[in-house]
UniProtKB/TrEMBL annotation:
The protein's name in its UniProt record: Oxygen-dependent coproporphyrinogen-III oxidase
Job of this protein: Involved in the heme biosynthesis. Catalyzes the aerobic oxidative decarboxylation of propionate groups of rings A and B of coproporphyrinogen-III to yield the vinyl groups in protoporphyrinogen-IX.
Lineage: Bacteria, Pseudomonadati, Pseudomonadota, Betaproteobacteria, Burkholderiales
Residue sites binding a divalent metal cation per the record: 98, 108, 147, 177
Gene, per the UniProt record: hemF
GO biological process terms, semicolon-separated: protoporphyrinogen IX biosynthetic process
Region (Important for dimerization): 242-277
Important for dimerization (site feature) positions: 177
EC number: 1.3.3.3
Sample GO molecular function, one term: metal ion binding
């Protein structure tokens, strides 16, 4: 395995995405580069890039991290129990962008590589990641564009990957205690190495490279649409679902906290303004209700329904 090639790609991807979002927002991201001190449980380095109170992004961050540790945490071995307790190396880019305008969806993307290093055995390497879209006011053409871009990125690696990763995303980004999806999905994969290292890494690059073409056209279509307090209030309410998922179910958050990662970087994904209400439901026939009836359910977006 060529970890230097993976690291170089991920750092370049992070900077391309940050440069593009800085240009769209008009406000520079702050950069927090870090290195683990000798003697800490995790060793490694990374770079957190974050913007708050921008014209486009109320809060957004894009992280790179590359760490090594003495023991894989439980969140990383739940599907590979034979590797429990093995030393590991992990690197990845993870981002969440929370726009100010409720007509612009929140988006999440990450791409990552894990290597378990069991004593006396060859390294076990796998890839994971994906991207998903969380609208507050759903638009059919946005959902279709996002899914089509994901499908096109995966097509060179096999006809079955998009349907498989789309279904995996629908299943993964689901709030079981609420009985509802987090958003309109996208693609998600984990523990992936079936194409061999080189082709699996190529697939990872295709997913990472697809992020800007998937998201920026949606931003440009929606960023100048009018909104008021009603829409901001609903946005804050729906952001509560985002927080619930990330703190209860998200494997990346759990991995970071269980392995002793940097709390500020891990919780960068949290939105700045959130609301909860007791047993609230939108009034039938409203745009808010349409999110639930038309968008928060698994659909074949490539077929338009």
């Amino acid at each position: 395995m060529d970890t230097n090639a993976v690291r170089g790609y991920l750092l370049g991807l992070q900077q391309r995405i940050v440069d593009a979002l800085q240009a769209a927002d008009g406000k520079a991201f702050t950069t927090d580069a870090w290195v683990r001190a000798p003697g800490e449980r995790l060793q490694g380095d990374g770079k957190t890039q974050l913007v708050e109170d921008g014209a486009l992004l109320e809060r957004g961050g894009c992280n790179f991290s590359h760490v090594k540790g003495p023991q894989l945490p439980p969140s990383a071995t739940q599907h590979r129990p034979e590797l429990a307790g093995a030393p590991f190396e992990a690197m990845g880019v993870s981002l969440v962008f929370h726009p100010r305008n409720p007509m612009v969806p929140t988006v999440h993307m990450n791409v990552r590589m894990f290597a378990a290093l069991p004593a006396g055995k060859d390294p076990v390497v796998w890839f994971g990641g994906g991207m998903d879209l969380t609208p507050y006011y759903g638009q059919e053409d946005d959902a279709q564009h996002f899914h089509r871009t994901c499908a096109d990125a995966l097509a060179p690696f096999g006809d079955g990957l998009y349907p498989r990763f789309k279904a995996w995303c629908d299943e993964y980004f689901f709030l079981k205690h609420r009985g509802e999806p987090r958003g309109i999905g996208g693609i998600f994969f984990d523990d992936f190495a079936e194409l061999g290292f080189d082709q699996s890494f190529a697939m990872l690059r295709a997913v990472g490279d697809a992020f800007l073409p998937a998201y920026l056209p949606i931003v440009e279509r929606r960023r100048n649409l009018p909104f008021g307090e009603r829409e901001r209030d609903f946005q804050a309410y729906r952001r509560g679902r985002y927080v619930e998922f990330n703190l209860v179910f998200d494997r990346g958050t759990l991995f970071g906290l269980q392995s002793g990662g940097r709390t500020e970087s891990i919780l960068m994904s949290m939105p700045p303004i959130v609301k909860w209400r007791y047993d609230w439901k939108p009034e039938s026939g409203t745009p808010e209700a349409r999110l639930y009836t038309d968008f928060l359910r698994p659909r074949d977006w490539l077929a338009g329904g």
